[in-house]
Every structure is written in C-alpha cells, then in structure tokens.
Amino acid sequence: MSGIGPPEPGEGTRAWDGPRQKGHAGRTRAALAGRCARHRRTALSLAAAAVLLGGGALYATRPHPPAPTRRPHPQVPYPVHAVDVTYLGARPAPAGAPPRSFSLTVLLSVASGPPVTVTRVTQPYAALSLVTEPPAPFRTPADSARKITITMHVTECEKAPRNAELPFLDVTLRNTRAIQTQSFILGPRYAQDLSQALEVACSNRSR
Amino acid sequence: MRQRSLIAITAALAAGALTLTACGSRDSGDKGSDSGNGDGTTVVIGVDAPLTGDLSAMGLGIKNSADLAVRNANKKEFVKGVTFKIEALDDQAQPSAGQQNASKFVSEQEVLGVVGPLNSSVAESMQKVFDDNKLVEVSPANTGPALTQGADWQKKKVRPYKSYFRTSTTDAIQGPFAAQYVYNTAKKKKVFVIDDKKTYGSGLAATFTEEFKKLGGKVVGTEHINPDAKDFSAVATKVKNSGAEVVYYGGEYPQAGPLSKQIKAAGAKIPLVGGDGIKDDTFMKLAGAEATGDLATSVGAPVEDLPSAKQFVADYKAAGYKEEYSAYGGYAYDSAWAIIEAVKKVVDANGGKLPTDARAKVTEAMQSVSFDGVTGKVSFDEYGDATNKQLTVYAVKNGAWVPVKSGTYTG
C-alpha cells in the first residue's frame, strides 16, 4: 500500500481506490488528490463551458436563411440623422394662391443612406395652413438636395404669431428604417421673414 | 523520499498552476484612465462637476464619461507618446468652489484642458481664471447663452472668453423650443413661471417666458424660490389659485421634484415643465407618481437613439461605473475627446512633442476641432458654441422620461 498513484489520477482512478489511507502521508496524499480532483473538475467544467459557449457561438453565428420579413440593414441611418433642412429665403406666393398667402423656400438635403420620402410638412400654429411644392409625399435620394417651396395661408390674423423667436417646421420623414417627425428650427432669418410676411398678409387684410 | 518530495512539489506546482489558470481571478486591476503608453508625456484633463450633494447624479455621470474617453484614448494610443489622465474636483455646484478648482487646475502644469462644469453659475466664476491662463475648458452642460455670447447676447453677440467652449446647446434655443411645445402642441395658454434665481434657472425661465408671450400665451403668475428650500407649499397654493394650466420651472431637479409634488398636493393637477436641469431620474423619485405628464426639454437627442452613441453606451456599461452616465454623459465624453483631439493637433504639428506653450496652442487648436462624436458631429462656431444643436422634449410616463418630440436647430 505504498504506491501513491499518479499525481493526476486517470479517469476512474479515485472512484475505485481502496479504503481511505490513515496517517499523515495518507492524509496529505488524499488531500492533494482531492485538490487535484477539484481542479480537474474545475478544468473540466471550464472546458465543458467553453465547448458549450463555442457551440453556442457557432450556433448563433451560423448562416441564416433570409428573414421572412424585411429587416432594416444595420447601417441604414434613421431618416432624421440623414436629413438636413435649411432656410433659403422668401419668395412671392404663386399665382392662384388664396389671399393672405406667402411663400418661403427651404432646402432639404439627404446626406446618406437610402432615399428619404417626405410624407408631411406642417407648422405648429393654429392660425396658419400650408402647402408644399412639390406636394408631399416626395422622395429624395442620398447625396442630393431638393428645394421645397412652402406656401402659407393665414386663416386667422388675430392668432398669428407676429414675432416668434424660434418658429419651426415639422417634417415627417420616412426611409427603409423608420418614419419620424422632426422639428427643424430654421433660425433667425426664417423667424424674421415669417414675421414680416405675417405682418404684410394681415395688414393687407385690413385695407 | 526524494522521489516522493519531487512528486509532492510537482503536484503542488501543478495545483498552483491550475489555481492561477483555471481558478484564477480575471481582475486585471485596470485603472483605465491612467494606463499609459509607456514612459511618454502625461497630459491631465481636469474635470470639474458636482461630485457630492444634490446634483451629484449628473456630476458623476460627467466624471465617469470623461474618464471613459481618456481610457479609450490611452487604449488606442490616440496621441503617440502621450498618456492622458483625469483629475476630478468637486465643485458642489457652488461658484466659489468652482473658482478654487479652476485655480488649482491652472497651477498644475500637466493640466492642458478641463471638462466642466455642470452649472452655468459655476462656469461664470471659472471662465476668467482659465482664460487668463489660456487653459481651455469645454463644458458638456452649461446652457446659459451669456457664457459664449456675452451678457447682451439678445441684442449683440460678443464672445467674452476665447478659452471657453461647450458641446451642449443653449437656453437661447431651449427656452423658446419649450414655449413652442407647451403653447402649440400641449395647447396650454396660461402659465405660472417659477425660477430658483440662479444664472441657469432665471435665464431659462426668461427665454421661455418671452417666447410664450410672443406666441399669445399668458403668464398668470411668477415666483422665485430659494434653492436651499424643500417646502414650497406657499408657492404651490399661489399656483393653485392662479388658474394656471401649466407651471414652467427654471431650475434643477432637487427642487423641481418636491415642487411638482407639492403643487399637485395643493390641488393643481397641472404639468410642471422644466429644462435639462430637471431631466434626471431623481426627479421622478422626488416628485412621486403624480409626476406623470410633467415635461422637460433637454439639449441634444436621446443618446440611446443615436447610432453614434452605441459604442459609448456599450463601453460605459463594460467599464462598470457605479453611476449612470445621466443627461450629460455623451456630451462629457465628447468634451473630453475634443480636448484629446486638440492635444493631438498640437503634438502632430510640433513633431510629435508638446510645445512649451502647449496650453495656448491647445486652446487655439480647439476652435478648429471637428470629429464624429457620441452626440454626432462635434465642432464649434465663432462663439465656442456647439454647431450641433439638437433638442428633445421628454414627458414622464410610467416613471421614466420618454422622448415625445425632437428638434434640430439649423439656422
């Protein structure tokens, strides 16, 4: 009974050992063997976990058949991140527009991604209505810009905001990823031209 | 015996090796912000924010996010031969503490830029100290227009300090945008305006009020509160008796939360609206369940929605910071990164080394910094303001801030 066996017992070695050894050496060996076995179990557990994880990763990254529904490409930007709207200037209202109408032009640019469709353009004031040229919906491809003429009609002069600091246009945008509405705050020149146009439109009314 | 000893030693070594490998801890002890690029130059980026006190939720988010930027710069060896470190000082949202911190940063030669502060009133006390010493500061959170455009900004814009920049947009846009939403979208025509008398709060309330009145809205009452107070029952009663349909509060969440709660408790079941200073999750904890329907505007788009912010959000989570990145985390990361970019420009232009007048050069370089950051394109206009001006209106729904409208300033 002097054999101490291999430092790393082989498969089944421990299970088939005889009765537990008495005495210091035996306890040391038994403790050592126990530790080794625990480490072996840890190592085996880790290996098993690694195999499972590896298998899981392989499974997760296996080639997929095309999805039955259209899913957006991860690189497709949200429409509001691809679009910019800037103010160009005022211009006369088109012939045939109702009285108390005026026009302003903006430039819509699409920087990247798939084409973006403008489905709606609105402004926030109850006393105004608007139409656009081209009329919504219209599509603009990437790396291009489109001039839009906004013709506003004052429906109620008493409620029209004569000198708002930060008027904006709400533009609803759609691309293959999403449909979103963004307020484009067009800055002081737009605010000034809008105020002036409202002043003119409503003072004409009183004449 | 020797053989047995040898076997025992071998077994011990094997067990030890296994312990070190299979059983070993994965704790690398990575400090991140000071893990460097060898023996090169160390550049310190100061961070000034409220790290203790009522506003620490926002302040710690700023500190952690700046730290993350520095970690990433060091990991990537973004500036060859330069190791970045942060040094964070607590201003407790107090101008006097902020000024002391500014003096401390100025006295330390390794500091080449400062991220912060949170509060506009604190920034006012720091700007001159930094500018006199040509030390650049980039705030992720100050929204007071006068900081970049001068006290008379509504009539004539004049930049007071060339060393001051910010990545957030200003109350010159935030206040009117809130007024437009409240009047046109929420259809509230009568407002009671309250502020905390501080630079940020009173300035924001003023820009809101001006636009609200221009739109045709009516201000049915105004009050100022003491920022140290928690009992607002007298003000709440005045709000109730005024017939207001909405309350606008210029101030921060430690007061806004209890104020909202006490206004509702007084019987005025009307929304409280504020700016970015109230847009923190602590607001809901203080305001309680009746905060549903309260509104806040915040500078910038929701970070979670920005494709540019995905990596930041993932990195922040992976870094294991205890606190949330909060409202200004993305902006703080971009502020720190702007300083890193400016240092890179200066080092690259000087043959790979920092020049002796590094602070002045970094301040100069900041003006032309431009990069794709967490919050989108980061660059600065002639006043030091961010060129990227986005705003979002949030509403409290189911105990969380939910974005309900977003805007972009393109003027």
Automatic annotation (TrEMBL), chain A:
<protein>
    <recommendedName>
        <fullName>Tat pathway signal sequence domain protein</fullName>
    </recommendedName>
</protein>
<feature type="region of interest" description="Disordered">
    <location>
        <begin position="1"/>
        <end position="29"/>
    </location>
</feature>
Automatic annotation (TrEMBL), chain B:
<keyword id="KW-0732">Signal</keyword>
<dbReference type="InterPro" id="IPR028081">
    <property type="entry name" value="Leu-bd"/>
</dbReference>
<dbReference type="Pfam" id="PF13458">
    <property type="entry name" value="Peripla_BP_6"/>
</dbReference>
<dbReference type="InterPro" id="IPR028082">
    <property type="entry name" value="Peripla_BP_I"/>
</dbReference>
<comment type="similarity">
    <text>Belongs to the leucine-binding protein family.</text>
</comment>
<feature type="domain" description="Leucine-binding protein">
    <location>
        <begin position="42"/>
        <end position="399"/>
    </location>
</feature>
<feature type="signal peptide">
    <location>
        <begin position="1"/>
        <end position="22"/>
    </location>
</feature>
<protein>
    <submittedName>
        <fullName>Branched-chain amino acid ABC transporter substrate-binding protein</fullName>
    </submittedName>
</protein>
